[in-house]
Every structure is written in C-alpha cells, then in structure tokens.
Amino acid sequence: MVAAGQVVVGVSGSLAGLAALRTAARAARSSGRVLVAVLAWEPPEGEVLHARNSDSAWAARCAREAAARLDRAFEEAFGGTPSVVRARPDRALCRLAAHPDDLLVIGARARARRAAVRRQVSAHARCPVLTVPAPAFARREYRALCRATARDFAAG
Predict the structure, then answer these.
(1) Which parts of 11-81 are beta strand (E)?
(2) Residue 124 lies in a domain
(3) 25 lies in which domain range?
(4) How far apart (Å, rounded) are the C-alpha atoms in residues 151 and 130?
(5) Structurally, how many domains does the chain consist of?
(6) Does any domain span residue 1?
(7) pLDDT tens by residue, the chain, 156 residues
(8) How many Å separate Cα 57 from the centre of its chain?
(9) CATH assignment of the domain containing 103
C-alpha cells in the first residue's frame, strides 16, 4: 500500500542532519512515499542586503557550495540525488511539506540557529514533524572529534 504525500527532510550535513536523512529514507521506504531531501540556503549577507548590492557570481558560488554540501551529506548517508533550494530553511521545508499527508523530518542540534529553524518548522508545518536527534557521543569522544583534522583520517 502506497501512502499519500511525501517525506521531506531538511539536510545540513551535520550528524543530526545525516540521522534525519536516514530516518526519513526509512519512513519513505516503509510508507511508499517519495523522499524529498532539501538543503536550503541564503546568501551569507541575507536576501535583503544581497538584493541591494546583487553579485550574481557570489550567489552562484554560494549555490555551488550548498549543492556540494548536500551531495556530500547524501553520499555519506546512502547515495542518490537531492535538491538545493535558495530560501530560509524553515520556509523552504514548510513549503515543500505543505500537505497534511506529508511527513517533515529534521535533525535536532543544540546550536541556536538550528534550534530556531526547528521552532519555526514546528510552529508552521501543515503536516507531522519528526525531529531526529544527533547520535550521542561520550564527552571525551566528542572533544576528540572536534579537534580532529583531515590528517587524522588519512590512510596511513
């Protein structure tokens, strides 16, 4: 039986975002819904300042970086083709998951900016919202990961 609606997941490349992506894929597979993975972005200076002093080369570079970040996250989770949207994350996700039969999946991180996205999505979503926490690490492991460099992961 195929469920109506789609499963929309916000992807950021964080551990919580990767956990949300995997959870959303399982939910889509088990319900027969379409999986829509989205990374929303805005110019670093914001849309208002960008509109006042538009630089199309800068915006194109930001879009390429967002697409590359989403591709890396999707590839790390399981491979496939995701979508990049130029918009505030909360607005983009709520717009894509606009039907009551949809399911919106987001990762839960402790950072204030992402907490704001989570609050806005929870307040404005027209469908159920599933919040997936980041995997838990022991404090010592977490500190070691934060101090790690690319050299630490290179094949020796």
Answers:
(1) 34-41
(2) yes
(3) 6-153
(4) 36
(5) 1
(6) no
(7) 556 788 988 887 777 888 888 888 889 889 888 888 888 877 766 666 666 667 777 777 877 887 787 777 766 666 555 667 788 888 888 988 889 999 999 887 655 455 788 888 889 999 999 888 877 766 777 677 677 666 665 554
(8) 24
(9) 3.40.50.620
